[in-house]
Design goal:
Layout (H helix, E strand, L loop, with lengths): L4 H11 L4 E7 L2 E6 H18 L6 E5 L4 H12 L3 E5 L5 H10 L4 E4 L2 H10 L8 E4 L13 E3 H14 L3 H8 L5 E6 L9 E5 H14 L7 E3 L7 H14 L2 E4 L6 H8 L3 E3 L2 H16 L3 H22 L6 H22 L6 E4 L6 H9 L4 E5 L9 E2 L12 E2 L4 E4 L4 E5 L6 E2 L3 H7 L6 E9 L5 E6 L4 E2 L9 E2 L1 H9 L4 E7 L6 E7 L1 H10 L7 H5 L2 H18 L10 E6 L19 H7 L1 H8 L4 E9 L5 E12 L11
Parallel strand pairs: 1-11, 3-4, 3-5, 5-6, 6-7, 10-11, 12-13, 13-14, 25-26
Antiparallel strand pairs: 1-2, 8-9, 9-19, 14-15, 15-16, 17-18, 18-20, 20-21, 22-23, 24-25, 26-28, 27-28
Helix pairs in contact: 1-2, 2-3, 2-6, 4-5, 8-9, 11-17, 12-13, 12-14, 20-21
């Protein structure tokens, strides 16, 4: 499908003018925008941007949540041959300086007062940022700044220009070619400055089409757009595939209303990183613990049944008459209400990606009748590399290569990919581009894995993170930190984990408790606490976490490859890991190396046999102020198990 995003928009507007394209919830009411409405809005914004001086091949940053007018601005910029660059709306001002400077940005469209303040703050370091447009005018009435204007003003000016020059917009759209750059996405930057990943209309549309073909997507799908638009995963599902398929994208009122909006919309096609699925499951488990004894017994009885036979049933295999009858009863009394409570009653296809999902978490959703599958990809591959076919979804693989993709495994175990969706380049960074793209078109993913006998790709961990235990009883055993972390994060009491063990004699972990889940548990135990730090260090909480760690160790002991990765010692951190403190990326991936440096005394204490360690940590508050949190952290040993030999 050699075309461009603006042409796809005009195609839908011509063929299905009155069909809904987007919905936005405002003041509790869903407002519908048809394809014709979107096309008219895009034309007006494009004409306004043209008058404001936006040039072909120039970058414009977009900062905000999912809003129809922000998506329309991306399309408007692309219609003029300009390049939208979405940035994370929760990034602090300092994090915006590099992308704006790197991409020579003069134009910005932001959502509201918070983002305007951020842009005005960075102007001191980015004087070229001359035009700032805002979508939501609340709180901005008395702002008087050069180049600051409302999107409404831009649209009004564009409307007049479009009336005077009716052929202008179509003429500009016709000039844009599939090989032209369509968007740039900055990587989360786990090390050093982020890199601008350059994608063309052809790469993004091809991958959107490949995914749509794989799962037989149609214009009838309903999607909820609630993840950051700066994440390419959100862009593929709510922008590229939206324009390829012509389905309806729904924008929630706010981050606080997402779970309510999810239930109201009832999406048929759903995408979320593992963290979201973890959060949903945690909220369910918290509510179930507060239910009456009879309800709890019924829930656990049917969930045990679902765990045994649900995934098999989801794969289209027979589970026997007796189990089928019991499962149908469970569906009526537990699974159906549970899916409805999660907002997933109508989900036909659900995907998770971004990082590996815990096998238990994955099986839970499939066991209750939700077609949750995994995909594999990255910003550089326009997401779709591997997808799991229906009836072939497994927790330990990420699927089979989708249309146009070739995969090979390097001698060191690294996955190499060839695909029509590969990045054009890293912007202004030829050295980094040459590192990941070979002369004959193979992309270095930096992930370690292999293709199994059924053609499914298995990812072990990042190549640089896969290590070996050195010394002790497990000398030479493989250590895959992400695998260990994900197994621990299945437990609702555990929110985040950082595992260490490479070139060491044992594995040790630092854990963040889930404050809501553990707080709820503490209240039921009549255990008083004064905030996160106090709760995290309670002996009762340590015992709770120890039980989780030892259950994971028991599971690992029967895994031939990873039995040596059992956790010997752990501690519970005194604060939650936070992107604002540099401990997580904006996509909530752990920056393991940064954390090891920042918490070096804790790592030394874990491996030095200490039973406690004092730590003081500088933190940033939401209002920009800095402070410190200190505590003496307990360090606990965990029971490990002898590896279980596989049956002959």
């Amino acid at each position: 499908m050699l075309t461009t995003f603006p042409r796809l928009l005009l195609k839908h507007a011509t063929e299905r003018a009155s069909a809904p394209a987007m919905r936005e919830k405002e003041y509790g009411i869903w407002q519908t925008h048809s394809w014709a409405d979107m096309a008219a809005l895009v034309e007006q914004i494009a004409c306004g941007l043209h008058q404001a001086g936006l040039q072909r091949h120039e970058h414009i940053i977009i900062v905000g949540a999912n809003r129809p007018r922000l998506y329309a601005t991306m399309l408007a910029a692309q219609s003029l041959g300009a390049i939208p660059v979405p940035l994370y709306q929760d990034a602090v001002a300092a994090e915006c300086v590099f992308p704006i400077t790197n991409a020579d940005v003069r134009f910005a469209l932001v959502e509201d007062q918070e983002q305007v303040d951020k842009m005005l703050e960075v102007r001191e370091k980015c004087p070229q940022l001359s035009h700032i447009f805002f979508d939501d005018p609340r709180g901005l009435r008395k702002y008087v700044e050069n180049g600051l204007a409302g999107l409404d003003e831009l649209i009004a000016a564009g409307k007049v220009f479009a009336t005077q020059h009716p052929e202008f917009f179509r003429g500009e759209v016709d000039k844009v070619q599939p090989a032209d750059v369509a968007a740039m996405f900055f990587t989360s930057g786990t090390t050093g400055n982020p890199k601008g990943v350059v994608h063309t209309h052809a790469t993004l549309i091809d991958r959107g089409q490949a995914g749509a073909e794989f799962d037989k997507l149609s214009p009838k799908e309903e999607v909820l757009a609630y993840l950051p638009p700066a994440w390419i995963g959100q862009n593929i599902f709510s922008y590229a595939q939206w324009l390829v398929c012509g389905y309806v994208v729904n924008c929630p009122e706010s981050a606080a209303t997402v779970t309510i909006d999810l239930k109201e919309i009832g999406p048929t096609y759903y995408f979320a990183p593992p963290r979201v699925f973890e959060g949903l499951l945690t909220s369910v488990m918290i509510r179930m613990e507060d239910a009456g004894a009879l309800k709890r017994r019924m829930f656990h009885f049917f969930m045990d049944l679902a765990k045994r036979v649900g995934p098999t049933r989801m794969d289209g295999k027979s589970i026997g008459l007796g189990n089928s009858v019991l499962y149908a009863l469970g569906n009526l009394m537990v699974y159906g209400p549970l899916r409805n409570n999660l907002g997933m009653s109508r989900v036909r296809v659900a995907y998770t990606a971004g990082e590996a999902i815990g096998p238990d978490l994955f099986s839970f959703y499939r066991s209750i009748g939700i077609n949750l599958k995994q995909l594999y990809g990255s910003t550089e591959t326009a997401v779709f590399v591997c997808l799991q076919p229906d009836n072939e979804a497994r927790a330990d693989t990420v699927g089979v290569p989708c249309r146009g993709v070739e995969i090979k495994v390097a001698d060191d175990g690294e996955i190499l990919v060839k695909s029509p969706g590969l990045l054009k380049e890293y912007y202004k960074n030829p050295a980094a581009t040459a590192e990941v793209l070979t002369a004959d078109g193979w992309y270095h993913t930096s992930d370690a894995g292999f293709l199994d006998a059924h053609g499914h790709l298995k990812i072990i961990d990042r190549v640089k993170d896969v290590g070996r235990i050195k010394g002790g009883n497990n000398d030479g055993a493989m250590f895959a930190p992400k695998y260990v972390e994900n197994k621990l994060k299945f437990f609702p009491q555990i929110k985040e984990v950082v595992a260490y063990g490479d070139q060491r004699e044992k594995v040790c972990v630092m854990i963040n408790i889930d404050f809501d889940a553990v707080g709820n548990w503490a209240e039921r135990q009549n255990l008083p606490y004064a905030g996160y730090t106090d709760l995290a260090q309670k002996p009762e909480v340590y015992q709770l976490i120890k039980e989780c760690v030892e259950k994971v160790n028991a599971d690992l002991s029967i895994d031939e490859l990873l039995a040596g990765s059992q956790v010997s010692r752990f501690l519970v951190l005194h604060k939650e890991l936070d992107a604002d403190d540099g401990e997580l990326t904006r996509t909530n991936k752990v920056r393991r190396g940064f954390i090891a440096d920042k918490y070096q005394p804790l790592v030394d204490a874990l491996y030095g046999g200490k039973t406690e360690q004092f730590i003081e940590t500088v933190v940033k508050f939401e209002d920009g102020r800095s402070g410190s949190v200190s505590a003496t952290l307990k360090i606990s040993d965990a029971k490990t198990f002898a590896p279980v030999k596989a049956a002959a």
